[in-house]
Write a structure and sequence with these properties.
There is one protein chain. With about 160 residues, this protein is an alpha+beta fold. The chain folds into two domains: about 100 residues, TolA/TonB C-terminal domain; about 50 residues, no CATH class. Strands 2-1-5 form a three-stranded antiparallel sheet, covered by helices on one side. Strand 3 and strand 4 form a beta hairpin.
Length: about 160
């Protein structure tokens, strides 16, 4: 079915292309104003880019329904659905002057950046992992040699481990 008039986001005017652009900007604005931008970091998602796909239908009466979301985490999926359900009533698409339902599919990217506290926690964990490896190495030397490893030997192994491993 070829749409004569595309659905219109409230407040949009102009040519068919202007209406499409304005519709996209309206959805972007909806997300900027309502999406919990802290959520990706709260979910401890690794730093990087994540694709989210939203499918929905604008009914003949202009309501947004049948929101389907594909996201990298169930809570992100819930949040995207919540925001989409806040969509204002649209002006329905038309075919031969009759209002019709129109399906939409919108992909977008969520950029997750490591916060200062996450970076600090990751570095602390890396240091602890290194210390644990050093302590295990000393323990194995102790077992291998059959005697207590002196403090000087510990510092020597620690130095080697931190500078060469």
């Amino acid at each position: 079915m070829i749409i004569d008039e595309v659905p219109v986001y409230p407040g949009c005017k102009g040519s068919k292309q202007d209406l499409k652009n304005c519709f996209s900007q309206g959805i972007q604005r909806l997300f900027i104003e309502n999406f919990d931008s802290d959520l990706p970091n709260q979910l401890l998602l690794k730093e990087g880019k994540y694709r989210v796909f939203i499918g929905f239908k604008i009914t003949a009466s202009g309501d947004v329904v049948n929101v389907v979301v594909r996201a990298p985490h169930p809570k992100l999926k819930e949040e995207v659905k919540r925001v989409m359900n806040l969509s204002p009533k649209m002006i329905a698409g038309k075919v031969k002057g009759e209002n019709v339902a129109v399906k939409y599919s919108i992909p977008f990217t969520i950029l997750v950046e490591e916060t200062k506290s996450q970076k600090k926690a990751r570095r602390k964990k890396e240091r602890m992992d290194k210390k644990t490896k050093t302590n295990l190495l000393i323990y194995y030397f102790h077992l291998l040699l059959g005697f207590h490893v002196s403090t000087y030997f510990f510092f020597f192994i620690n130095y080697i481990f931190y500078h060469f491993v």
